[in-house]
Amino acid sequence: MAAEREVLTYEDFGRAVREVAQNVVDSGFEPDLVLSIARGGLPFGGALGYALDIKNVSVVNVEFYTGVDQRLDVPIMLPPTPAAVDLSGMKVLVVDDVADTGKTLKLVQEFVADHVAESKIACIYEKSRTIVNCDYVWKYTDHWIDFPWSSQPPLTSSQTKHRSAGPRRTDQGADRCQGD
């Protein structure tokens, strides 16, 4: 029997973006920059940029998960990283799809802490085991999350060559790595 899953549809994603954006506005926090954590935070960060009318959207790439529930000992930032001087004095909204362990978010939060005027965190989902509590969250869950952008297997030229070799599984992407 498969474990229970949280399924995020694109329709739910649109609702999550608007609700989190409204919570940011209602809190009085006016970010100068949306800093998305790649890859899972990219769709959410871009959408929040539009919803909050913030054109200054940047990306930081952090590697932590290497497979299904397989992680490095600690998350590491991959180049290029944003120049700290470019963040100086800004109010930054750090964005990811899920606060799972929270270690990735903590790394990014610590990276910006000495350079920005203020930072806050927004995630679509927050899990109870996270070490970082987000300032803005759409939903709390401890289930595995199927995101619409990562629930299908990637399309690669090697897969294209093998498509005619037999039936294709439709659940291949469902067990790929989960957020931070």
From TrEMBL:
Keywords (A to Z) from UniProt: Glycosyltransferase, Transferase
One Pfam family from the record: Pribosyltran
Domain called Phosphoribosyltransferase: residue spans: 10-150
Region (Disordered): 154-180
InterPro entries per record: PRTase-like, PRTase_dom
Glycosyltransferase in keyword set: yes
Domain of life: Bacteria
CDD domains attached to this UniProt entry: PRTases_typeI
Molecular function in Gene Ontology: glycosyltransferase activity
Compositional bias (Basic and acidic residues): 168-180
Protein's name in the database: Phosphoribosyltransferase domain-containing protein
Organism of this sequence: Yimella lutea
